Structures are given as structure tokens and as C-alpha cells.
Amino acid sequence: MLKEKLNDTFELSNDEKQDILKHKNYYESSRASSIEALKIVQKNRGWISKRALYEIAKILEISASDLEEIATFYSQIFRKPVGRNIIRYCDSVVCYMYGCENIKSFLEKRLDILIGETTKDFRFTLLPTCCLGSCDKAPVIMINDRVYSNLTLQLIAELLESYR
Q: Are 23 and 37 in contact (CB under 8 A)?
């Protein structure tokens, strides 16, 4: 994966570089600050491109392979472009008992994508998550940073329209 051709015109912004260096100093090792560095760039760009990964690795003075291992381990770090709205549906045991499979199927059909995919217009990306911490209000989904609970398929349809 790291052997793909890199875009030579890519460059991190000065703000991104300064933020990464600032966070690097908070940790005992550069490697320990790598998640924060990835989050800084992802917050600004929506995902971590291969070139961004190389640039971050240079600043942190660790190998791109080490950083790639970290970036691919965490599901919250996106290694490909994602939609403007990230939908995470909870597939925990409790949400399973309350119909998360129906929600998953409904979302896949309504958005015309499968789990892990992004709609063609880049409005939505659909991802599973193991728990959103609202088991007493199952079933639950999260769209971007907002959690929606006690869902029905009708409510989900209305939510999707509000995010269009």
C-alpha cells in the first residue's frame, strides 16, 4: 500500500505542522503522539492520505510504516475519503436485540451502499460500531458527533433527510 505513487504537491499546512509539533512535546516518545497527529490532520482534511501519512511521519521522526500500522489499527482514523456525514450504527448485543440488523439493512438500502462504503455524492459513510454507550435507549446510531436513540425506521428516514 505504501508503494503507491505519491502526490508531490501535497503539503501539510503550517498550522497542522505546528499543532503536531506542539502535541509531540506532550509525550515521552514521538510514536505516542502519533494518534494526536493523525487526528489533527484528519480534522482538517477529513481523512489521512498516503502523502499526509508520510508528512506526519517525517515530523514525528518515525517510519511511515510504523505510522501506517497505527493509522490502520484504529477505526476512527480514515485512510480513504469519507462522506460529510459519518453514520455509525451500534451493533452491540443490546442494539442487536432491539433490531440493529433492520437498521443496518434499511440504511444500506436507503443509501445504496454497504457497510464501510460512502455514497457516490460523498454525503454519507456507513460504519458499524460495537457500542455507543446508550444501551438503555437502544437501538442507537450516531451521525457525526450526535447520538440518536430509541430509533424507528421512520425516524431514521427523517434524520437522513435532515442531513442532505
A: yes
Q: Is the pLDDT of residue 96 over 60?
A: yes
* 94-112 burial code (b ≥16 CB/10 A, e <16): bbeebbbeebbebbeeebe
**162 phi/psi in degrees, rounded to 5:** -70, -20
Widest Cα–Cα separation across the chain: 50
Compute the average pLDDT of residues 45-52: 94
- Mean pLDDT of the 125-137 span: 93
Q: Higher pLDDT residue, 161 or 2?
A: 161
- Best CA proximity match to 55, nearest among 1, 24, 5, 13: 13
For 49-76, what is each residue's pLDDT tens digit?
Answer: 999 999 999 999 999 999 999 999 998 8
Side-chain-side CA neighbours of 112 within 13 Å: the count stands at 5
Q: Where does the pLDDT of residue 6 fall: very low under 50, low under 70, confident under 90, or very high at 90 and above?
A: low
The grid coordinates listed for 113 are: 451502499
Report the distance separating Cα 120 and Cα 49, nearest Å.
Answer: 19
Residue owning grid cell 433527510:
161
Cβ(42)–Cβ(19) under 8 Å? no
